[in-house]
Amino acid sequence: MICPGETVLVALSGGADSVCLFRVLYALSESYPFRLEAVHVNHMLRDTAGRDEAFARALCERFGVPFHCEKVDVAAYAKEQRLGTEEAARTLRYEVFERIREQIGAGKVALAHHEGDQAETILFHLCRGCGIEGLRGMEPVSDYYIRPLLGCDRAAIEKYLACLSQSYVTDETNLENIYSRNILRNLIMPVLTENICAKTQAHIAATGERMGQLEDFIHMAVEQAYRDCVQDAYQRDADGKKVDRKQSLDIPALQRLHPFVRSELVRTCLYRLCETKKDITDAHVAAVCGLCDKQTGRSISLPYHMRAYRSYHAILLEKFTEADEKEDGDAQLWQQEILIGAQGAGFACEYAMQDGRKLSVSIFSRPKDANIPTKAYTKWLDYAKLDKSLALRMPKEGDYFLMADGHKKYLKDYMKNEKIPAGQRSLMPIVAMGNHVVYIVGRRISEACKVTETTEMIVQIHVRD
Fold it and tell me: What is the mean pLDDT of residues 220-247?
């Protein structure tokens, strides 16, 4: 937790926990080579906040420990940022810790969380919904934050202070059941301890420690899976730093993984791509995993301008920015010409699509008593109703097809009505003559090109992986 010669900044509120930590660290500093300083954050929420600040200052003066203090207007910040008081106070408090840490060059910031805080944290995460990471609770060492008392219960802390005849202050709001933490501490935990198991708090904290070990094991498994399944494509930012922009997840390798490891691998990929864990849900992870069983060409939109796309042997994850709009526009310019005007029965040709699939076109005389295919990826069109040149391309502005009543249906309106995600619309391949879309690949054809009783020659379009 502490390296020789380091400066340790202890968060000193004046309450029993922080005063205990202060005294423990001070005692250790007399025999172990590190420098101790203290920081107090006045949240300006109580009339007695000044009392707590004065107590913390006097304690530091008594032991000759450098004291830092900052006032933060939690109420104003909470209102401005539309946050709860607890969240606003925590945010501002940690900003002060970080600022003072950098100012004095401290190697560690010591926090006074104990076993009861750990149990409450895990229970809070469980109630709100979490994965293994949430069930591990707080870590004894997290970057430069250390929690030396995490294995101690409140009774041990109070006993230690009593042995030293050390006083402390009590935040009277801790007794008010208006905050989530207080409800867990004052109402829920006592019921569990008194009616379920006297060692509930210790058992929850111990479970958190085991969950931490389990998460470390899973992390190793996911990192190995990442090496086996994922290929990264990098771009560089203005400073020359590598930035993940694309990831290719090999589908056969993914399918060999245990379902849990597969999900955690996908989650890790999304976290790394968008550089945050916020707003990435189990539903997003499941949707990406589900692409393994979808047809080539299927895609889904994800938070933070990300998109997942099913190619032939892989799932492609990509993050877009405003600068990518031009690239997206260039993608829409992709097209291949399908010449059918001079062809007759027996003509067959295959075209490579941008997503790796193959689109085959064949021309033949209409068989007698043949049933018209109804499959999404096999369509018959009336040869006589088509231009001699068709285009296999991506959608563009003004594209339409004709309905049964002869009215135009614009493609963009159709996609909205079909609830096709915005990120997928520009990538949906079509076959068109000019702006008239004769086939939306995987969906429907224009009624204007439909095979009827008078059709003599048929153009069959078939798409395969």
Answer: 76
Cβ neighbours of 4 (radius 10 Å): 7
Longest C-alpha distance within the chain, in Å?
Answer: 104
pLDDT tens-digit series, residues 41-67: 999 988 888 999 999 999 999 999 999
Name every residue whose Cβ is closer than 8 Å to that of residue 427 and which is 6 or more positions away in sequence: 299, 309, 331, 355, 394
Give the position of tokens 């990826």. 377
Nearest residue to 36 (alpha-carbon basis) of 116, 148, 117, 141: 148
Length of the chain: 465
Domains of the chain: 7-196 (3.40.50.620), 214-320 (3.30.465.60), 333-464 (no CATH)
Average pLDDT over residues 88-99: 94
| DSSP code, position 15 | S
420: helix, strand or coil: coil
Ramachandran quadrant class, 77 (left: phi over 0; alpha: psi -120 to 50; beta: rest): alpha
- Residue 63 CA to residue 411 CA, distance in Å, equals 76
CB atoms within 10 A of CB 83: 16
